[in-house]
Design goal:
The protein has one domain. It is 56% helix and 0% strand. The chain is built from 2 helices and no strands. The radius of gyration is 20 Å and the shape is elongated. It starts with 6 loop residues before the first helix and ends with a helix. The mean pLDDT is 82.
Length: 52
């Protein structure tokens, strides 16, 4: 009683991402891009440590 229907809980594709003109990434693509970003940040951090 008093429960509200929330479409997002029943259908995760209810709304598309706003402002994104490209196709959504697959899980593997997103993970690969994330790992590359982390590796780049780690490299920058290591360079900063060496220069100090």
């Amino acid at each position: 009683m008093g429960q509200k229907f929330v479409p997002e809980l029943h259908d995760p594709n209810y709304r598309s991402t706003e402002g994104q003109k490209t196709e959504a990434l697959t899980e593997d693509e997103a993970e690969r891009i994330f790992d590359a970003m982390i590796a780049e940040l780690d490299a920058e951090h290591c360079d900063e440590q060496r220069s100090n």
